[in-house]
Amino acid sequence: MKVETIPDKRMESSVNHIYQSVQNQMGELARMSSLLEIYPGKEFDQKSYESILSELIRSTKNSITELSECNQVLVNQFLMAKQQQLFRPHSKIFVFGGVSENEHLKSGNIYDIRTNVWSQVVSMDLKRACLLSSIVYALGSIYIFGGNDILDCLEKYNVETNQMMRIPIQTCGGSSIATCYNGQEIVYLVGGYKNKTMDRIDAFNIRTNETIEIGKLNMPRYYAFSFFHYNMIYTIGGTYKNGTTNYTLVNSLERFNINTRRSETILSLELSERIEGACFDGNDTIYIMTNKQFLKVSLISLEMMILPDVQMIGKYGVSLVYTKLEDGQSRIYLFGGKNQQDHYFDVSNRRWKSINGKTKRTIFQGAVAV
């Protein structure tokens, strides 16, 4: 989305315009008031007074409108700057937990984008399986939520010190929670599963560790993917089940407004299969992968486009991670599945390339770029 850039002088000019306009009109009002005192009841003076007052109101309204427009542009610039902070150049991707041969994991790994080399980092305290969309990077730390139905705590990994800390969470935990970060101090927790499919939208403050409920989804879902963009939370895909019944797909895109606290379904996805992985480019495009195809969805036009698919087997429980590199390239990394290799998609030339895979193959792992 293109954001208009204006010089600071325009804002200063608008303020001066309002001030000067009001000063001039107030001077005229004072002069007309004096005339009315000298010549009371004069029809001409009365009409002139009303005309000056009307002009004062009109001029001031116009100036305030101009000032409001300038303010909105500055707000958009601020939001864009915050959004760009979330997508600064990346050099590493951290991968935690997941499932390997029916075993729930607590391991941690790091992939170096520059060298194409994997190494290990400190493990989590607890085994966490369903983390695909339950991991975010914020202010130097990686936050890992849920992962199993019984867990009501999160883990915080300090990237610099390679230390892991367990933190109680003041809300329902669970598995397959969708999370997204607003670029400041709030991580949003969306949906998930614990004894039932949840519709919650909670806000977790990473500075105070406090959590509050701010809204609900139109449709309860777990194993969904959420992204924060311009004070909106976009949630795509997911599944729903009630108790022990078979799950049903929730192939739709919801938008939750942080300010109005309202959620609306803005797109029904014409897909017959579940979304296995998703990522966001920080601009207007969500990339999604099913076990049959790779697509992108525009948040502006709400149109879907089919992209070249990766050649691999077992596209199940995969992590998609959108990265921006120092040379300006954009790549989407794919981790997990049954293949022995991982992959990345070059966004500019729309081609897939294989990279070294982790020693232990996993699914439903959490992955985040730093």
UniProtKB/TrEMBL annotation:
SUPFAM superfamilies: Kelch motif. InterPro entries: Kelch-typ_b-propeller (IPR015915), Kelch_1 (IPR006652), Kelch_domain_containing_8 (IPR051746). Keywords: Kelch repeat, Repeat. It comes from the Eukaryota. This is Kelch motif family protein. It comes from Heterostelium pallidum (strain ATCC 26659 / Pp 5 / PN500) (Cellular slime mold).
